[in-house]
Every structure is written in C-alpha cells, then in structure tokens.
Amino acid sequence: MPAEKEIKQYRNPIPTTDIIIEYQEGIVLIERKNPPYGLAIPGGFSEVGLSLPDNARKEAKEETNLEIMIENEDTPMVFSDPDRDPRYHMISITYIAKGYGKLKAGDDAKKARVYSLDQVKEMIDNDALAFDHAKILMQYLKQRGYVK
Amino acid sequence: MPAEKEIKQYRNPIPTTDIIIEYQEGIVLIERKNPPYGLAIPGGFSEVGLSLPDNARKEAKEETNLEIMIENEDTPMVFSDPDRDPRYHMISITYIAKGYGKLKAGDDAKKARVYSLDQVKEMIDNDALAFDHAKILMQYLKQRGYVK
Left if phi > 0, otherwise alpha if psi is -120 to 50, otherwise beta: which for B7? Predict the structure, then answer.
C-alpha cells in the first residue's frame, strides 16, 4: 500500500492502529527508535486499502514479529483527543489481541519486550510511556479488572 | 475548524463519525441531499481539532437539530472495510446516542425523520440504505437484542 505517496486531501485527523498484545503473562511494549521516544504499545499509521484490523495485524507483525488474534474487532477502544500526539491530531483505534510466535523487534523499534502487568502499572505511575499510552493502558487494565 | 482547507498529507483513510440517534421510540434517518443518495444515519467527516465524540455531537446538531447523549464514547463501533464507501476509503466511527430536542433537517439533508425499528429492519431487507448503513444498523439491532 502506498502510505508514503502524498495526495491532496481535506484536513482530517490521521487514523492509526495500536495493539495491546497479551503474550506470556504480560503485555508487549516497544522502545521507539524515532521521536517521540519512550516505551509504547506497537502500532502505526492506517493505510488506504487495509481495514483497521488488517492494518493492526500488519503493524504487529512488523514491529514485534508476532501473529495476533484480535478480540475486540467490532468495538475497539478509540482515543481522539486533539492533543494526544504532539505531532498532529492522530486518532488511535486500539485493539486488544493475543500474540503468537517468537517476539522480535522490527525496523521501527529498538527493542520489543514483555512486561508484567505490575510493571505496566508502575510505568503508568512513573510517566514512562510515550503519547497517551498510559491512559490507553489504564483503560485496558480497568476493563480487565486489574485496577479499579 | 478548517475542514475545507487543503494540506499535503500521507495517504490515509479518512475518518468520519456516524450516529445512531434513538429518539421517540425509533431511530433518526436522513435523506441525503448529495450523492450517494438514499437514507442514512446522520454523520460526516471528522475535523482536525475536534475529538470524535465532539465531532459526532456537532454533526448530529447540524443534520438533525438534536442534542445527543452518547452511550459508547470509549468503545464505539468501527467500520473500516476499504470498499464500504464508493468515493474513497472512509472509516466510520459509529456512536449510539439518545437524542433530545426538536427534530429538524439540516443543510446536508433533505429530510430527517424517525423510523421505527420494524421499519429499519424492513429497509435493511430491502436494501434501502446508503453506504454500508444496513450493516451498521444490523449490528446495532443485534447489540440491542432486537434481532438474533
């Protein structure tokens, strides 16, 4: 898909897909190679011609080498605050998925690692996550009943 | 918001917000003034600087004159099949809401009317809805338990 090809468009927010990948008793986070730096859930720009779940599967594979089974395809979490990304108004459609295969960092990530839910909670408290991913992961932990 | 201003962007699908407005024992549908013609749930392009729920509230007001209370802000329905709109790859973030106030068609609509759920089911069967709104409304009716 020609995501790099520029065309003229109306001024819309840019849709992205992010994925909370459950893998080996924890969650997969990547260390970003490009700014904004920091730990983040895997994801990327949505491309013309790919449904959002297909886009999420492609991004997960590229960034973590994992195949994923998405559990909330029809009603994903959506984050659309205009200030959630410092670069532009980006919308995150966030899927929750189980990961399968061998975890390995892809081109856009320096590292890809599994973190326990306790570690994730600590990162949220310590403001160690990029973008609004602390908010996204907190909502996930609440949905799962890990925090109240 | 400068939705009409053109800028250069990567080639992304265009996000839109649609709203299933529950009002007086039925659902509000509009008759479209612009192609593609047909009956549709109210909605429109997402604008830079507005969160998607705010965008939905603005579109609902413009097209139906109603104020709305959204019930699924955090986990809306999302439709992203590349072929769902004949014009371009458009993503629909679909909210379910209760409508308040006096129903009146806005600029983009010829008419805005309330249809009973039986009428909606009939329209789905008769292919009377624009875009993939038959699919969207069928998913809604299933969520509500009106159809199996």
Answer: beta
